[in-house]
Amino acid sequence: MTRIAIAGAAHPHVAYATAEVDAVDSFELVAVADPSRELAERWAAPYDAKVFTDHQAMLREVEPDIVMVAGIYGDRGQAVVDALNAGCHVIADKPLCTTLADLDAITEAVRRTGRHVTLLLEKRYYPVTLAALEISGQLGTIHGVTASGPHKLNRPTRPAWFFDRAQYGGLLTDLAVHDIDAGLLFTGLTSGTVSGFVVDTSYGVATLSGPGALITAGVDWMNPAGSPMHGDYRMKLVGTEGTAELLWARNRLVVTTTELAPHDVPLPAGHRPAELPLQAFAAGNEPDITTARGLLVTRLALLAQQSAETGGVPLPWTTP
């Protein structure tokens, strides 16, 4: 059995882990820790898992194989470090952490322990993304990536910590990481500059530029309440031989090339957010979303947030 524990359950994406426990007989949820005992009990009860209000006590007593981190954003960095120090692999909801100091601590813990951290970049596993990766060669050299990620705020449902900068980490820290990762996938960009701009904490853009490519990721909490979807997420790829529009919320991929008019591309089956990472860990392998990749895209999102808070100054970056 692969023993899974949850360190922090403040975000509903904790269900990414429980979905795999439901689907795979060899996965067992052994414990849930959250400062709110009520919240921990809610997630633990269906699995008869142990309940803790202190994740460190949970790690000492239960000794899990894998820890899912999905707590209050500002608490996540320490939870990841503690899980690594306990000898566990980690799967983490985004954001992985909210400060560059926390990220450096995670990086050092990874180096010291040899354990892995996988950031659950679920857009990678959407059918639209998988299809786009398959056909991307038809577009020639991809020079431009433009993403739009509107979200509904649903203010009455948000906890107080969500509006506390120290606990939330900032708009770009939270929302830009998925599209930064996708932009790097499609362009192969490995160095350049990153900058950010945020308007009134609710609308922002992260921009990465480097040799031969420009990536812009617009994100916001301004999707109108009347919209039929929480977020009409989309991305456009512009290449020397064609373009592709990834309409994630509409489950469509529209491609236009020098030889073909706009057309929908058939989509493959996708994967649940934690499906492949947990399968890899259970088999003794590092997941396809590597530790290095999660650390890199988290650093880029944090640098974009730092740039936004210091006048939009471009900051240099390179892949380690």
TrEMBL record:
Alphabetical keyword list: Oxidoreductase
Molecular-function GO terms, alphabetical: nucleotide binding; oxidoreductase activity
Domain called Gfo/Idh/MocA-like oxidoreductase N-terminal: residue spans: 3-118
Pfam families, per database record: GFO_IDH_MocA, GFO_IDH_MocA_C3
UniProt superkingdom: Bacteria
Domain GFO/IDH/MocA-like oxidoreductase: residue ranges: 136-245
Protein's name according to its UniProt entry: Dehydrogenase
